[in-house]
Amino acid sequence: xxxxIVESPTKAKTLSRxxxxxxxxxxxxxxxxxxxxxxxxxxxxxNFAPDYQPMVGKEEAIKNIETKSKKAGKIxxxxxxxxxxxxxxxxxxxxVGNGKTKRIVFHEITKEAxxxxxxxxxxxxxxxxxxxxxxxxLDRLVGYKLSPILWKKVRRGLSAGRVQTVAVRLIVxxxxxxxxxxxxxxxxxxxxxKKDQQFRVQLINKKVDNKKTADKVVHNLKKAKYVVANIKxxxxxxNPYPPFTTSTMSQTASRLFGWSARRTMSTAQKLYxxxxxxxxxxxxVNIAVSAVAKTREYIKAQFGDRYLPDAPxxxxxxxxxxxxxxxxxxxxxxxxxxxxxxxxxxxxxxVKLYSLIWKRFVACQxxxxxxxxxxxDVKAGDYLLRASGQILKFDGWKxxxxxxxxxxxxxxxxxxxxVTLQLVKVDPQxxxxxxxxxxxxxxxxxxxxxxxxxxxxxxxxxxxxxxxRQYVEKSEGKFTPTNIxxxxxxxxxxxxxxxxxxxxxxxxxNDLDRVADGDKKWxxxxxxxxxxxxxxxKSVEKNAKRVKIETEKLNKPCPKCGKESKGxxxxxxxxFGKFVSCSRFPDCxxxxxxxxxxxxxxxxxxxxxxIIKKTGKWKKFFGCSRYPDCKWASWKDxxxxxxxxxx
DNA sequence: CAGTGAGCGAGCTTCCGCTTGACTT
Length: 647
Description:
Residues 159-164 are annotated as: Interaction with DNA. With 647 residues, the protein is α+β, with helices and mostly antiparallel strands. The chain folds into five domains: 2-124, Rossmann fold; 145-180 and 439-543, Topoisomerase I, domain 2 (Orthogonal Bundle), CATH 1.10.460; 185-239 and 369-432, Topoisomerase I, domain 3, CATH 2.70.20.10; 246-363, Orthogonal Bundle (Topoisomerase I, domain 4), CATH 1.10.290.10; 566-634, no CATH class. Helices cover 36% and strands 22% of the residues. The strands form seven sheets. The chain has a six-stranded antiparallel beta barrel with strand order 9-10-13-12-11-14. The chain has a four-stranded parallel sheet with strand order 2-1-7-8, with helices on both faces. A four-stranded antiparallel sheet has the order 17-18-19-20, with no helix packed on it. Helix 5 packs antiparallel against helix 15, helix 5 (126-153) packs parallel to helix 16 (522-543) and helix 6 (164-180) crosses helix 13 (459-468). The two termini are 45 Å apart.
């Protein structure tokens, strides 16, 4: 019996089905060797020699591969066709250790692709493995050298990294833009005009930015003569969106369902494990040819020829850092619009997400939608006003994948050039420019992807990390930096600017490509980075002052020392969340609980307020503000009655 | 489930990326 080794156990099961009994298939469950967690694991004096060790927690997977390999005939290592996959392949080869292994790759899980791969085995691509080593060593050096500086200069337990610090920096800088933003006044001036039917035109050739000008314009418009000056009709075509990647799926589920990246990814995982969708951690929009063919059949049968474009649509990945190891996220059976899913706690989510993925995918192979767009220009003295109308002529792919928040049809009446219109009303509207929006999960993931920072497997974890570290807080879905986040980002950007430049990762990727192509040695790339970095580390460690973290003031005197020493109450963040203390600490040691009220009285004593409390870093519980007089406490939110709390 | 901050300094914290499973943040 031959043996095939892949990363995902679900993939292993699927392959077994294709290949029958002459092949055994085993999974590594991701990486099996890595740098040790408890120490640097990189010998900076010996050309950065990395100390890759079997990973804690992967003993079973490793053992499994060892035993199965001993009995196997041919051994095909079919880990993912990308940098990390090649590294895993190399580690598998080291563990099997008998020289019998061959490396194969495929980009889609179809019988043809796998058979083709088996027919063309190769060896390990050591240049690509080297690129992974460089990536891994760089991240380790950045993370494990900078974090201890934060412990020393800011606060214990903090962390820094090529990815997480950039995420925090984005949020901090956005907050600054919002703070310094000054709203600008501007006016939009509309006129309702009519011939047989009334329609609305907007002033377009004069900028109005205050009431005085607006009044003058309105005054003139009231007296003006309105003549249709120009009519433009055009056909506007809209092509469907590409199928989902991890990033676009997370963004869309966030926008449409309000889901967190975590919720979307864990729902997708369940769909993947049930064989309903292709792999959900991907940066590619490629689609298996066989899936396209099936989808075209389905579209033809279900919607008719009009909805089927002449040729299949194939999409190109635009993201420059994409590795394209997998297909796009799509239903494995494009003709199944609603899969049968057993009723469980999660089935509603699964059905919802499946339906979204299915619609997006089938729509991506459907005909272009067509709008008739009409623009009517109206002259009123020196003023030019315009109305734009749009009518859906043929829905095409929009029949299936309707995008919320898109304007409805605006139908304009038939008028001719030169016709005089009657003014019904002038409607001046005062507006103000809006500050940039705070980041939410969707926009943060989008921006990180554009910068090439983070990978499909890490978008959701990044969002958790920056919150766990208390660098940012999420409220009503939007991220705000904490004082710690601001202090850490400022400290790191000031002292290690080059590492946290927004294009640092993109430049790193360029270097890694050179390593993968065999044009550069990985040690040279790391050496080039580390020399100046090490110098900087030493000088910052020696010279940088300890960072003071801004505290939130309560504007109340300290009950213990407020009278004689003018201590004031401030909010500090400790190991167990926020608490109130005296600004004069350590001279005054007054502390009190920080109460985060949820707006309801204690269900037990009816006198205190229910407040949110924390135990350890994570666990929240609800308690009474009168503790210890009232000992009421609950894990469950007392505002929620019976209803399931979907996270 | 009732702690916390500074500094003293035992021993400890920390990265990104690949997987899933255990568990609810």
